[in-house]
Design goal:
Strands 8, 9, 10, 11, 12 and 13 form a six-stranded mixed sheet that branches. About 45% of the residues are buried. The protein is built from eleven helices and 13 strands. The chain has helices at about 50-60, 70-75, 100-105, 115, 120-125, 145-160, 165-190, 215-225, 265-270, 280, 300-315; strands at about 30-35, 45-50, 65, 110, 130, 140, 145, 195-205, 205-210, 225-230, 240, 250-255, 285-290. The longest helix has 24 residues, at about 165-190. By secondary structure, the chain is an alpha/beta fold.
Length: about 325
């Protein structure tokens, strides 16, 4: 089972000096980079400026008053799509429209610091605003915290901000139960400790994102009893790799998240002559996984990704011992 980080207690929808019976102050929350001086007790009209937050509200059975990149959410995440059918689009994740946000009369705005810090003051003039830090930069028990650890705390915080703490606990219990089931499936098949890489296709020639040691995929690997390559953390949780980087990685599976056509063949993705020398390909342990599965989402995306990793690995030949 995935263990919660040290800050897993629900965190507060109040100012930094306030206290509440169920939630601790936002000022003590390491996932929060900026927040308004006061917060609504029970916000009814929440605008979300990142996919993770839209998914999180949906998991809490809350429909946002506005969201960014609505069409891309449907393409990349798709969780509870019908809920967002009539939700106003308020711009892009990179450039949300202040006018569109103001027009939906929010009583709470949720964004991410690395994108929205420059417009925090403008957002704060529209409605109370909380900006989350995208990725952890700290170590616990000798291991980097992962985006999965961070996601859990962010989700619990949104549960507090929206007055849905009990529902947030239920969703995280569902995630933990799913991870435990998948870990058991892998263990029964003798795949505990298996090494794998999760690569995101970018539409570039022999150049991919690899999810690394502080990504959500890395947190899932730990919970599933697997080992993700490469292990080094980065600020974004990804790094660029090519087929050459895989030449000296034996006994490892390579899983591709395809970002292109639904009917694409694996062979079309391996567009470098170097691939034929990669041990994973020569041993039949390279596979396409579900298209457009989001590696930076909330608990429901994490649960889906864990199941997809498990299902795919169980279809591939076991590595030599």
């Amino acid at each position: 089972m995935c263990s919660a980080p040290v800050w897993a207690e629900p965190l507060a929808p109040r100012d930094a000096s306030a206290s509440a019976s169920a939630c601790t102050p936002l000022g003590a929350n390491p996932t929060v980079s900026q927040f308004s001086r006061s917060m609504p007790e029970r916000p009814k009209r929440v605008v979300v400026l990142e996919f993770m937050f839209a998914e999180g509200l949906a998991a809490l059975d809350v429909t946002p008053a506005g969201m960014v990149d609505k069409a891309s959410y449907a393409k990349w995440l798709g969780y509870d799509d019908a809920r967002f059918l009539h939700v106003p689009d308020v711009g892009t994740r990179q450039e949300p429209s202040l006018e569109a946000i103001a027009s939906v009369r929010p009583d709470l705005i949720i964004g991410v610091g690395f994108r929205h810090a420059p417009i925090f003051a403008a957002l704060d003039r529209i409605a109370p605003t909380v900006l989350f830090q995208f990725s952890p930069n700290v170590v616990k028990d000798g291991l980097p915290l992962t985006q999965l650890d961070w996601t859990r705390t962010i989700f619990q915080t949104i549960g507090c901000l929206s007055a849905h703490t009990d529902k947030a606990r239920e969703v995280l219990a569902q995630l933990d139960a799913g991870l435990a089931r998948d870990a058991e499936r892998l263990a029964r098949a003798g795949r505990s400790g298996a090494r794998f890489a999760l690569l995101q296709e970018l539409g570039l020639t022999d150049r991919y994102w690899a999810y690394v040691g502080n990504s959500t995929a890395a947190g899932l690997a730990r919970a599933l009893g697997l080992v993700l390559w490469p292990p080094e953390p980065t600020r974004e949780g990804t790094q660029y790799v090519s087929s050459q980087d895989l030449l000296h990685e034996p006994n490892m599976a390579v899983l591709f998240v395809s970002a292109t056509d639904a009917g694409g063949r694996l062979e079309a993705k391996l567009d470098s002559p170097v691939w034929r020398f990669v041990p994973a390909l020569r041993e039949g342990r390279v596979a396409l996984v579900e298209r457009n599965i989001w590696g930076f989402g909330g608990p429901m995306s994490a649960l889906r990704l864990a199941g997809t990793i498990t299902d795919t690995l169980l279809t591939l030949p076991a590595p030599a011992r």
